[in-house]
Amino acid sequence: MRVRILAVGQKMPAWVESGYQEYSKRLPADFQLELIELAPGYRGKGADIARAMRSEGDAMLAAIGKNERVIALDVKGKPWSTEQLASQAEDWRMAGANVCLLVGGPDGLDPRCLQRADQKWSLSALTLPHPLVRIVLAEQIYRAWTLLQGHPYHK
């Protein structure tokens, strides 16, 4: 099974890269985690935010693989505990599905991406910085995998 994170934003600080890599490298080849960074839409002075979001949405929709299960990260989505995430991951694996997690830019996901999603997941009711979301996702996916393996990391 492959889990891909499609995230708006490039050129992250070293602490983000390091944090993400720390957890993604721990996962085995049969539970692979991959990060795809997408260019953010233009948000300079006088920018049209809707246009920036459309641009991000175009890139995100084009990057979704054929037959991937699409999960949109959205504050209005359903919150999952780690145990529920592990259960979801086991369901995905048993169905033979690869998964694509969508992480929007500073203004969230383009509405078309939300419509395309098979599920909507909320990491928290808190507003999290987008770079931190990558690390939280990688850690929680690793934690869910360890839970499925009966590994003591989860405790």
From TrEMBL:
Which gene does this sequence derive from? rlmH
Q: Which positions are annotated as binding S-adenosyl-L-methionine?
A: 73, 104, 123-128
Could you confirm whether the keyword Metal-binding appears in this record? Answer: no
Protein name from the UniProt record: Ribosomal RNA large subunit methyltransferase H
A Pfam family recorded for this sequence: SPOUT_MTase
What function does this protein fulfil? Specifically methylates the pseudouridine at position 1915 (m3Psi1915) in 23S rRNA.
Its Enzyme Commission number(s) read: 2.1.1.177
Annotated keywords: Cytoplasm, Methyltransferase, rRNA processing, S-adenosyl-L-methionine, Transferase
Which GO terms fall under molecular function for this chain's record? rRNA (pseudouridine-N3-)-methyltransferase activity
